[in-house]
Amino acid sequence: MFTMQQQAMAIESVFRAHNVDCRVAPPPSSFQTSGYNAFTFQRGVGLKVSSVTGLSPELEEALGQPVRFSHRPLTLEVARPDPQRLPLLALWPQLKSAQATGLPMATGQTVEGGRLLPQRVNLADPNTPHALIAGTTGSGKTILLQSMLLSAAAMQSPATLSIVVLDPKGVDFRGFYGLPHLAHNVISDPAECVQALAAVVAELERRKAAGMSEPEQRIVVAVDELADLMDVAGKDVEGYIRRIIQVGRGLGVALVAATQQPLAAILGSVVKANFPLRMVGKVSSDTEAKTAAGIYHTGAERLPGKGAFLSVNGTTHRIQAYHCAGDEQVQLVGAIGHRWGGGKAHYSLRLDAPVNVGRVEQQVEIIAKSNEAEVPKWLTPAIRNYMGKNGKAPSQRQVQGLVQKRTGKMLPWPVVK
Questions:
Q1: pLDDT, tens digit, for every residue of 251-268?
Q2: DSSP state of 310
Q3: Torsion of CA 141, 261, 319, 296, to 10 degrees
């Protein structure tokens, strides 16, 4: 287990072995964070940056682990042998006393000018209305998503913030039960996830039709494992998410999605240019790093995981994410509930509600007759998806055509009204 000083000595030994005129700068230019050691350099006159970065394989061999270079100034990042967690719970005094405006969320700790600073993002900012979190298993993406949501709930009352959590795995968000900001219980069933997205789109269209540019209550839709949900529900999910991204910014609806597989083939056109804020953890390859970050050469594939992320939004910042899981999460959820009066969540999201879409102002209901076969479960989401894309209800003929295509037969009664 190398200390920071031993790591510095190993780095300089590689430079000497390859006749590179470069030394590790002493503290405070080189510094330690909770997750990694950062080494800046005193380079000889005229020494090219590539002469240093080109030694990455030799440096990794000497240090026994992957390394990552960042620039402005040139810095070598090496994971600490004893990384320290950043508990979100320790931030509670600042969160509960914050005078929140917009939709602020705490993400983690970053470095500016050699100083460790807390980083927050504001999803009410027109430049960062939606966020994508990407990373492999063990990167900490779900814990980052949870910390962002809980920090927002700590700073905003349930009257001004409503949270919809879609958790297809059905495991990681159990600690959220009791959070007063939830618009519905944590939703795990894929069909109900689609219905929830449809209900959010319906609320979007209602706000749009009413001309609401500054709604009193903002809505955050959080999707864990977006790629898995899209793989199960496909085009329905893609259509709703695209609609939320397109018009949510001006109507108080933000989307925060996490995915383990940031591949263009899986996420399709949803990712491209639609998530201006990217939080990228350790990924499997430079190809995934490019898709997740939206830019080349971030080095995300060399991150050590365990809460190490790159915050990408025009510029790139290395952050160490806050951690909040297990008993700490239960304790923080309880503190948040107590702060806002100790009340329980008033679930306002109806998964079976008729959908109002845009200026059409037309309610669509599925009609079932008691003496007939049941309506297929996939039909309601399919109709809502059509309305989200086209701003109008489908005709009887279109619906019957869809049923016939999927089942080979038509329903023996008018389907919609």
A1: 999 999 999 877 665 555
A2: E
A3: -170
